[in-house]
Structures are given as C-alpha cells and as structure tokens.
C-alpha cells in the first residue's frame, strides 16, 4: 500500500510539474500573443477618433452663424474644457480602475461573471470606458461574438496608441445622452444651456447617469428615475474618494435649473452666404461632398449687423408684389472679406444666387475698368473727346462693322467734354472713343486683372457693358480700384479647423500688387464725380437722384440696360454692389424699378457708416492734386466760377491755365475801379457815411 501511495505521489508531482510547465508555456504564449497584438496595433497605427460632428459656422465677430447637425448634435471639446465633476462622476460609475488597466479590467470581468451566474442572467456589465469608446467609434451595438472580438481588437489599438486622457476625452465626446444629443458638450447645452466646463457637481451627476438608459434616465422623460440614478452616482463618487459625504448630500439636494426646450426653428440667417461658405470650404480643402464637412469649425467673414441691414434695405425698397429680383454684396476692399450677401428676395423660393452665379449685362459699371485702363495708358481726367452722335467703324475689309451707340435720352454735349465729366455724366460716346484709343483687347485684359472671370468679348459695345458678368466680380473689381490695385477675391472663410482644433485652412493675409497704384487712385477720385454737381455740363450727374442722401465721401458708378439696373460704389472701408432685374430678361419700364439699385445702395451705405467719421480717400505718392476748371480740364484761375480739385498721375497734370474768363475779368476790374472811385467821392462829401 505504501508503495502504491509513493507511486501516486510521484505521479501527482509529475502532473504538477507538467501543469506548471504548461502554465508557463501558456503564459509565455499569452505574453507573446500580447506582444504580437501590441506590435500589430503599433504597425496599424492609431485608429481615427473622429465621428460625424456638428459643423459650426462663426460670424466675423466669433458669434454663432449656423450649426449643421447632420441629424446628430455633436460638439468636440478638449478634456481640459470639461468640468472635473463630469470626469469624476463618469469614472466612478463607468470604470473605477480606468487609469490602472490597459483596456480590460480582469477583476470587473470576474465580478460580472459571478453576478451573472448567480442571477442566471446578464445583470452586470464589465465593459471599460475604452471598450465602450471602441464600440461607439467603430461598431454596431449587436451582441455577436464577431462584434465582441472586433471590440477587443479596437480596444487594444486605442490603448496602444493613445494616452488615457485622450481616450477619456473621446469617450465623453461620443457617448449618447438621449434626445439626439451626442457628447458632453451637446448634452450640457441641451439640458442646462451652458458649456461642459461650467457644469456643477449636481448637474454632472445627472448627466453621467443618462448613458445607461437614455430614455429611462433622461430628466426630461422621468425626473424621478434620473434622481435615483444620480443618488447611485454620487454614492460611487464618495466611495472613490472624489467627494465627502457632506458634498454628496449637498449635490443631491441642489436645485436643478433645466434648459427650457423649444422646438427648433429652421435657421434662415444669410442662407445664400452659408451656401457660398460651404462651396469655398470644399474648394479650399479639396472636398467632394457635404459629408466631408462634418465636425469642422468654420470662421467666416460675415458681419451680422451689415447682413441684417442689407436684408432690411432690400425688403423696404423693392415692392413686395413685384417679381423683380436682386443681388447684393458688401465686402472689405482691403481684404476681399465678404461682409454681407443676398442672392435673391427669397431663398426658400429660389436658392439660385444672383450675386455669385447670375451673369448679367453690367451696363455703364464697366466704364470703371475702362477708364482705369485709359489712365494707365496715357489719358488724364482732362483729356477731351467730343460728345455727339457718332457712327464708329471697327475692323477692316470684310470684317469691317459699323456701331452707333447713343447717350441716355439722346443727350449730347455736342462739344468737347473731359474724362472727369464723361464718367460723372456716363457719356457713352466718350466711352466708346476711349475703348478705340486703348483697344478692346486691353479692356479684356484689364478686366481679368481685376478679377472678372466671366467670358467677356472684345466687341465694340464692351465699353458699354454688353458682355454679361457676375455682380461679385464687379464688386471685387471696384474693391481693387479702391485699395490701390492689390489683388483680392471675394472671401467668405478666414479659417477652418478640425473638430480637435487643427488648422486646416487659413486665408492669405498678403495681397500682391497687380494694378498701377497711382492710376487706381486717379480712377477712385474720378468715381467721386457721380455725386458732384460741379461736373454738370449738358445733363445731370448720374448720382443726382441720391446725392442729397449722402453724408459721406463715396466713389461709385451706376449702370442701366433695358433689363438690368446696377449700382456699385465704395468708401475707404467698404465696397458694395447691387443688381436688380427680372430673372427672365423682362424689361424694367417703370422709373421706380430702375431706381431700386441706387436707393438700396445709398441707404445701406449711409446706415453702415452712421456715426463714423467722414473719411476721404488717401492719395497715393505718385499723384498730384490741382484745381481745374471741370468744364475744360485746364488749371483754374481765381476768376474761374467753377473749380474742382482733381488728381493726376505726376507728370500728366495740366499746365495750361483757363483763359475763358479773361474778358469777364477785365470787366470786373473796371467795375471795381469805378466803384472804388465812387466810394472815395462820397467819403469826402459825407465822411460819416
């Protein structure tokens, strides 16, 4: 028997050694497996943490312009912008050992298994915060073994490539808090109308309880259930040492002020502008669809006050019963930043943007690029051309063509007029003669330099604006004239950030010189003439109808065709353009219809500058200002009844003095002499007089 017992003991020892050896082998294999998994996880790299986030658009003053939720409200905030009460409550109830494990909690798994065996049902979860985060990021919430294995793999990848704070940050930004709200920032705004960084301990413990059962524990659905869950969480926080018993009681008893939830109204703030923002962001970031915009923080150029002002002026000016449409754009001429944009009277009725998409004949507003090109090529404000009915001949031989333009209402000076007068009075004959002088191809090239990208054609009528262009292009061109010739383009976005704050795009701040600075300033000063009655010779200046409404210094130009009415102009700080007309090329027969563009423009500009100091346009270094007689462009004398300060590129200013009033001057001298002698006589006779 003793022999058998000895053999048995030896057998047991042998089996024990084998078991130990097997255990060691299994442990080695397990360690090797973990090592291999770690290496593979490192090789595969960090899994992306982004999920569809709410896209936020900001105005130029950083106020909220619009949010695009894509069906789910989500805002990503860094962990340092989350209340520590939220972090403590979440860890206490979801994963007490979060900072001590590597994605899986063996003790919790064992405890959950025992609890489930005792109850013969699934009664306790064992998922860590990392596992839940992996599920939220990458997986559906089904209960298959394949899903469990994939969850485990993503958990390893997360733990291998990210630190604990980054994982916790991601978890708090992705969990579901009910009512279509994802992430702690969206939940904080939804339930308490505050940022997540401002949450109190009481509020945080209420929110931390919702993810276990968003419908059951939502305080909006059942406050009693929410309070019961809050009590459990506060007790867990006390047990983990985050708070004292006194703080636990105080937090539970604290009165909660929930946000009054109202049915969301559809945002309708600058909808045409928002469309352009999305279009520009996709272009700058090379995106192909709106889905790729998810989670971006987009900083725009919109000035909400100017936008509301523009909308008010359009609504007040245009007859609501009229089917006339409008396009409006205001921008900073120094940077190209678009401050206000209107693409039509009603976005819901027609989202077609008439400011950036529609191409229409610009009429006489095209004379600004024309006269800039003329100044650059040798003409001056004093250059004389005769205004009279004229038939122009273009081309030679078989390509020869005749062109007979006319002035508005067939008004002509039938005499020589200056360039200063021609632009102020909008003389068409002078304009076509100017284009003959510089060449139609030169006007096309100059227009391109000013940012006009539409397909304008070098035809005889180009000087009068018969080639269709976009309003946005013309406003941009006028802005470049005002800023001294620096290149700009209509800019709707200043910066784009990813959900985690990475800068993806920033608008350039440098603008290269593309136009002649001095010629641009001379043109700017010429454009003030439309508001100056001193340039009135044979008809009224084109700004006459709105001149009395102006209190600031502006440069501008209007334009009219049978179907279009334009007004574009600027101050030193703002350029704005208005187009009005019918979509289907219907003629504007009423005088009031043709006046809409000017009236919208002047009322907008005046209110936009209300309370601001009147600013003059600053001359460039290469120009000189002299007093001239605007009727002939010669240097004015003290006897000229009409004078105007006019700017010229240095070296091109007039040198000849006006002699038209010499006869009147001699007569006046004789009258003064006779009066003096008469006064002297009576002074001797009546010394007291």
From TrEMBL:
UniProt keyword Zinc, yes or no:
no
Regions of biased composition (Basic and acidic residues) lie at 660-681
- InterPro entries attached here? Beta-lactam/transpept-like, Glyco_trans_51, Glycosyltr_51/Transpeptidase, Lysozyme-like_dom_sf, PBP_transglycosylase, PCN-bd_Tpept, Pep_trsgly
Region span, Disordered:
660-689
UniProt keyword Cytoplasm present: no
- The regions listed as transmembrane in this protein's record are 20-41
What Pfam families does the record point to? Transgly (PF00912), Transpeptidase (PF00905)
Give one GO molecular function term. Answer: pentosyltransferase activity
Q: Please provide the Gene Ontology terms (biological process) for this protein.
A: cell wall organization; peptidoglycan biosynthetic process; proteolysis; regulation of cell shape
- Give the source's domain of life in one word: Bacteria
Which SUPFAM superfamilies does its entry note? beta-lactamase/transpeptidase-like, Lysozyme-like
Q: For the Penicillin-binding protein transpeptidase domain, which residue ranges apply? A: 327-573
**Which reaction equations make up its catalytic activity?**
Preferential cleavage: (Ac)2-L-Lys-D-Ala-|-D-Ala. Also transpeptidation of peptidyl-alanyl moieties that are N-acyl substituents of D-alanine; [GlcNAc-(1->4)-Mur2Ac(oyl-L-Ala-gamma-D-Glu-L-Lys-D-Ala-D-Ala)](n)-di-trans,octa-cis-undecaprenyl diphosphate + beta-D-GlcNAc-(1->4)-Mur2Ac(oyl-L-Ala-gamma-D-Glu-L-Lys-D-Ala-D-Ala)-di-trans,octa-cis-undecaprenyl diphosphate = [GlcNAc-(1->4)-Mur2Ac(oyl-L-Ala-gamma-D-Glu-L-Lys-D-Ala-D-Ala)](n+1)-di-trans,octa-cis-undecaprenyl diphosphate + di-trans,octa-cis-undecaprenyl diphosphate + H(+)
One cellular component term (GO) for this entry is: peptidoglycan-based cell wall
Principal localisation: membrane
According to the UniProt entry, the coiled-coil residues are: none
* Intracellular or extracellular location(s): Cell membrane
Instruction: Give the record's keywords alphabetically.
Output: Carboxypeptidase, Cell inner membrane, Cell membrane, Cell shape, Cell wall biogenesis/degradation, Glycosyltransferase, Hydrolase, Membrane, Multifunctional enzyme, Peptidoglycan synthesis, Protease, Transferase, Transmembrane, Transmembrane helix
Q: Where is the Glycosyl transferase family domain?
A: 63-238
Q: Which family does it belong to?
A: In the C-terminal section; belongs to the transpeptidase family. In the N-terminal section; belongs to the glycosyltransferase 51 family.
Q: Which NCBIfam families match?
A: mono_pep_trsgly (TIGR02070), PBP_1a_fam (TIGR02074)
Under which name does UniProt file this protein?
Monofunctional biosynthetic peptidoglycan transglycosylase
């Amino acid at each position: 028997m003793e022999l058998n017992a000895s053999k048995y003991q030896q057998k047991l020892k042998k089996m024990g050694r084998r078991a130990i050896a097997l255990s060691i082998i299994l442990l080695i294999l397990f360690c090797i497996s973990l090592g291999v998994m770690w290496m593979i996880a490192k090789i595969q790299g960090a899994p992306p943490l982004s999920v569809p986030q709410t896209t936020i658009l900001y105005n130029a003053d950083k106020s909220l312009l619009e949010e695009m939720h894509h069906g789910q409200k989500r805002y990503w905030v860094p962990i340092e912008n989350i209340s520590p009460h939220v972090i403590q409550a979440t860890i206490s109830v979801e994963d007490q050992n979060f900072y001590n494990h590597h994605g899986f909690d063996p003790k919790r798994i064992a405890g959950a298994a025992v609890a489930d065996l005792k109850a013969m049902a699934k009664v306790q979860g064992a998922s860590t915060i990392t596992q839940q985060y992996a599920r939220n990021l990458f997986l559906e919430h089904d209960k298959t073994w394949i899903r469990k294995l994939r969850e485990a793999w993503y958990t390893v990848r997360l733990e291998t490539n990210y630190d604990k704070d980054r994982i916790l940050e991601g978890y708090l930004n992705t969990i579901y808090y009910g009512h279509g709200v994802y992430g702690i920032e969206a939940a904080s705004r939804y339930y308490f109308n505050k940022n997540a960084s401002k949450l109190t301990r009481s509020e945080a413990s209420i929110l931390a309880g919702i993810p276990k059962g968003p419908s059951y524990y939502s305080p909006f659905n059942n406050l009693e259930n929410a309070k019961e869950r809050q009590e459990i969480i506060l007790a867990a926080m006390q047990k983990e040492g985050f708070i004292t018993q006194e703080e636990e009681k105080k937090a539970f008893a604290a009165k909660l002020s929930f946000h009054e939830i109202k049915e969301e109204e559809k945002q309708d703030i600058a909808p045409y502008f928002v469309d352009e923002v999305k279009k520009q962001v996709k272009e700058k970031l090379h995106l192909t669809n709106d889905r790729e915009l998810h989670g971006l923080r987009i900083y725009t150029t919109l000035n909400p006050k100017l936008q509301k002002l523009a909308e008010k002026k359009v609504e007040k000016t245009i007859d609501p019963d009229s089917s006339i449409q409008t396009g409006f754009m205001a921008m900073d001429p120094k940077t190209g930043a678009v401050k206000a944009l209107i693409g039509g009277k009603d976005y819901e009725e027609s989202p077609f943007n008439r400011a950036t998409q529609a191409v229409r004949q610009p009429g006489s507003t095209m004379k600004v690029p024309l006269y800039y090109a003329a100044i650059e090529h040798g003409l001056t404000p004093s250059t004389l051309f005769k205004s009279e009915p004229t038939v122009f001949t273009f081309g030679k031989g078989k390509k020869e063509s005749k062109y007979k333009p006319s002035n508005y209402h067939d008004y002509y000076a039938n005499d020589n007029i200056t360039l200063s007068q021609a632009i102020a009075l909008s003389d068409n004959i002078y304009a076509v003669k100017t284009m003959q002088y510089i060449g139609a191809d030169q006007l096309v090239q100059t227009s391109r330099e000013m940012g006009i990208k539409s397909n304008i054609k070098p035809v005889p009528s180009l000087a009068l604006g018969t080639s269709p262009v976009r309003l946005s292009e013309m406003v941009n061109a006028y802005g470049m004239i005002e800023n001294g010739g620096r290149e700009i383009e209509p800019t709707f976005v200043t910066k784009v950030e990813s959900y985690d704050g990475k800068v993806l795009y920033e608008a350039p701040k440098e603008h290269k010189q593309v136009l002649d600075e001095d010629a641009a300033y001379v043109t700017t000063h010429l454009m003030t003439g439309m508001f100056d009655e001193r340039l009135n010779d044979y008809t009224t200046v084109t700004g006459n109808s709105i001149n009395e409404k102006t209190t600031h210094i502006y440069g501008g130009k209007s334009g009219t065709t049978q179907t279009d009415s334009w007004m574009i102009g600027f101050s030193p700080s703002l350029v704005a353009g208005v187009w009005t007309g019918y979509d289907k090329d219907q003629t504007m027969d009423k005088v009031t219809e043709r006046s809409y563009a000017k009236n919208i423009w002047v009322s907008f500009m005046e209110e936009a500058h209300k309370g601001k100091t009147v600013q003059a346009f600053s001359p460039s270094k290469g120009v000189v200002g002299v007093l001239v007689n605007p009727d002939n462009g010669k240097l004015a004398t003290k006897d000229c009844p009409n004078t105007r300060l006019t700017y010229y590129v240095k070296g091109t200013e007039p040198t000849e003095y006006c002699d038209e009033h010499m006869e009147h001057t001699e007569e006046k001298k004789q009258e003064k002499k006779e009066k003096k002698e008469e006064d002297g006589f009576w002074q001797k006779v009546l010394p007291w007089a």
